Each structure stands twice: as structure tokens, then as C-alpha cells.
Model the fold of this input.
Amino acid sequence: MEYSGIMYLCKYKRLYFNVLGMNYLQKLRRQYGYSQDFVARKLEISRPTYILLESGKRDLSIREARVLSDLYDLALVDFLAEIMPEEGETVNLMVKESGAEYKSDMRVAVPQENVEKFREVILYILEKIGARPNIGEAVIWKLLYFIDFDYYEKYEEQLIGARYKRNHHGPTPVISTQILEEMEKQGDIVRVNTKYFQYEQKKYLPVRKADLSILSAQEKTLIDEEIERFKNYNATQIREYSHRDVPWITTPSQAEIDYESVFYRTPEFSVRAYSEDDEN
Done:
């Protein structure tokens, strides 16, 4: 049976933790800066039940393994093998949860001063094309990747400045989940679970208009060009397209994608008209 090995690992996950003398779920959660409440909500279980999972006192189901592997952007086989993603930069942020404020060593993938721009660009994309049936969460993340990396290739400056890692779904901003959760709590966006053909799709719709005053005319022009370029792509199409781009091809699995790799792109992806001086 196809999933027999997975079922075996899930059934004996607790023993595997004890043999290794460490708690993989706790290490993953802390590396990403997630609270136990946050992960429990993703699993659709209570926090006390999640604590049992994290402490190894409750077996991990196949469904829970799949949810957690997606949450931490790991292939299921890597998650079950207890492979850790590469550690990123952490900074202390004040995070609001359940009405209280507390400090968290959240893994932040953009310079702190650019987090606001990250939010406003997401809102602007959602305003323009968020209601289209092909535009779900996966398309948004790939679109942000092309906005950031194309702008850097063209102008040698950062637009959003987000850090992206190479996972099996394609380039993904490291703080994607935290940003969306925060925006939902603040009432900037609403999440809608829909179906695109036979596939489950997470969509987000804007509640307020984006503040475009934080964007230069040059930045907005490129964003508009990228939106127009990818507005008809579905998740599969844009994922497969991103997998042919040199930055993704040359980056090891789960590693951070280097912006400098855009200067080695093939003509299919390059957005810059290079002169002889550029090549020398």
C-alpha cells in the first residue's frame, strides 16, 4: 500500500522522538516563532491536545503530519524524517495574541522596516486580481517572488526585500503565514475557502484599500506589469514556471534563495536589457 510507510512512522512517531532524545515539533515551532495556540488552530485541535503531540504523549495522525509539513514548507517525507529547515534570522517582535502582548523570537524574512510594504503590496494584488477564480494563496506567493526578484534584477534595488526559500511548492516568502494571520486579525483581509476545479483553494479578499503612498512610481509600475503578466496563471502553471527560473534551480531544498542569482537567468526569465558594460 502506498502510505504504509507513512502510517508506520505516524503510529510510532512518539517512540522516534524519545529515541532521538529531542522534540522535533517543538524545535520546528520555535524556529518559526509560532505559538502553541497558532499551531493548534492550524491542526484544528485544542492547545492542550497539541501539547500532548509536542510532548510525545499522543500519536501523530497522517492528516496532522500533512498539515504540519505544509505549515513548515517541508515535503512530507522530509517532515517524517525529522529534517530541519535552514535557520533564518530572528528578531524580537511584539506579537498580539488572545488580547495580550508578548515578545516572540519570530523568524522574520524581511527587514522590519519593509513589513508594512509587504502587507500593502499583498493588499494591492488582492484588489487587482484577488477575486479571479484562479488566484489563490499559492499564486500570490509566486507573484510576490517575481515582483521582488524581477525588480532586483532590473534596478539592483530591493522592492519588498522579502526572503524566499526553495520548497517543493516553489519559492515562498518565509513570513507568509505570520503576515496573513496578522492581516486577518487586523481586519485587512478575509479568508475564503473555495474550490478551483477539483482542488481545494485558499483565497484572500481585501477589506481595505492598499496604501500606495509607500510605493514609488517605479515600484508600482513594475508591480502592475507583473500582475498583468501572471493574472491568468493558476497555481500549477506559476509553480512550474518558477521551477524553471535559475534562482530556484540553483538553490538547495529549503535553503534561502539568493537575490544575486537573478543575474544568471536565462533569456526566458530575464527582465533586464543588458549592455556590454554589464557583461564585462
Summary: The longest helix spans residues 137-155.
